[in-house]
């Protein structure tokens, strides 16, 4: 593998994310919402909680988390037709929706979300690579805010969050491992990988494709290590944006007789018992 630093569009180091910002509550009416900006990629996530569950969850006492994903017609350099005009979502959209839903479900105890469904809508305002990973990262923030709302209102009795979740892209371009591919890099990538991981470091999903060549196990390990560098930064951004939410949740949980969380206890950020 070529270990020389690559010249990147934003003069980033190979292990450097694009500038990232997470804005909490950009929407007034959703139970939870977040806007993520990763370089030129911008995704708006909104979480809705409803008193219903899919048929296969009925009478189980458990809840559900699902997601929808869409891209605005001018999110890209040329206009794309709205999928609603075709009467169905594309295979790509369906795949991304399932990925987001699986990722978010991995950090929620469904038994503590009885007979409720959280729907996280992820709308891509502008796409410059990494829209699915940005959707997961922002979707988590929106979902947590929505969970806090119903918990603080007493609509659910127990805090259901068990961990955090974030996602990032990595890949090989000209045999160089790069973190957080933007479009010009993604379109030229030999290997494209999306990594989804919990705050505790457990891998939830790895989507890896040899676009122009196969890749060795050693290259996979290098890409995963690179992804973990970016995930740490994203987790910190999530924690910072959610700090007021978690403080309010912890205040209620502590008032109910639980031991007070230590300031440096990362579990307090996840809302773990």
Task: Give me the secondary-structure topology.
Layout: E1 20-24, E2 32-38, E3 41-50, E4 64-71, H1 91-105, E5 117-126, H2 131-152, E6 165-173, E7 176-179, H3 183-186, E8 191-198, E9 203-210, H4 217-255, H5 267-270
Parallel strand pairs: 4-5
Antiparallel strand pairs: 1-2, 2-3, 3-5, 6-7, 6-8, 8-9
Helix pairs in contact: 1-2, 2-4
Characterization of this structure:
Helix 1 (91-105) packs across helix 2 (131-152) and helix 2 runs parallel beside helix 4 (217-255). The model is unreliable at 261-266 (pLDDT under 50). It is built from 5 helices and 9 strands. The chain has helices at residues 91-105, 131-152, 183-186, 217-255, 267-270, and strands at residues 20-24, 32-38, 41-50, 64-71, 117-126, 165-173, 176-179, 191-198, 203-210. It is an alpha+beta fold. Helices cover 31% and strands 25% of the residues. The longest helix has 39 residues, at 217-255.
Order of helices and strands: EEEEHEHEEHEEHH
CATH superfamily: GHMP Kinase, N-terminal domain
Give the CATH level 1 class: Alpha Beta
The 3D shape can be described as globular
By DSSP (H or I, 4+ residues per run), the number of helices equals 5
Percent strand equals 25-35%
Mean pLDDT score, rounded?
Answer: 91
Enumerate the strands of the largest sheet in spatial order, edge to edge or round the barrel.
1-2-3-5-4
Unreliable stretches (pLDDT < 50, length at least 5) are: 261-266
Main beta-sheet annotation: 5 strands, mixed
**CATH T-level topology:** Ribosomal Protein S5, domain 2
Oligomer kind:
single chain
Number of strands: 9
Distance between the termini: 44 Å
**Class derived from helix and strand content:** alpha+beta
Helix content: 25-40%
Count of discrete domains: 1
CATH architecture: 2-Layer Sandwich
Based on CA atoms alone, the radius of gyration comes out at: 19 Å
């Amino acid at each position: 593998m070529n270990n020389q630093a690559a010249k990147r569009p934003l003069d980033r180091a190979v292990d450097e994310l694009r500038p990232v910002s997470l804005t909490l509550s950009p929407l007034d009416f959703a139970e939870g919402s977040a806007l993520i900006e990763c370089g030129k990629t911008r995704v708006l996530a909104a979480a809705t909680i409803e008193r219903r569950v899919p048929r296969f969850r009925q009478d189980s006492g458990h809840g559900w988390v699902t997601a929808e994903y869409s891209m605005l017609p001018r999110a890209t350099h040329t206009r794309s037709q709205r999928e609603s005009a075709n009467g169905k979502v594309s295979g790509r959209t369906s795949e991304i929706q399932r990925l987001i839903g699986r990722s978010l479900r991995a950090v929620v105890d469904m038994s503590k979300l009885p007979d409720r469904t959280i729907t996280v809508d992820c709308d891509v305002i502008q796409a410059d690579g990494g829209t699915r990973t940005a959707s997961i990262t922002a979707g988590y923030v929106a979902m947590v805010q929505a969970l806090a709302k119903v918990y603080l209102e007493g609509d659910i009795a127990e805090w259901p969050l068990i961990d955090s979740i974030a996602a990032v892209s990595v890949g090989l371009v000209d045999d160089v491992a790069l973190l957080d591919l933007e479009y010009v890099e993604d379109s030229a990538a030999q290997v494209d990988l999306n990594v989804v991981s919990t705050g505790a470091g457990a891998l939830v999903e790895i989507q890896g494709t040899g676009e122009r060549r196969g890749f060795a196990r050693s290259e996979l390990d290098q890409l995963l290590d690179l992804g973990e560098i970016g995930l740490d930064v994203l987790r910190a951004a999530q924690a910072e944006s959610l700090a007021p939410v978690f403080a309010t949740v912890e205040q209620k949980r502590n008032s109910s007789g639980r031991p007070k969380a230590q300031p440096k206890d990362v579990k307090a950020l996840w809302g773990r018992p």
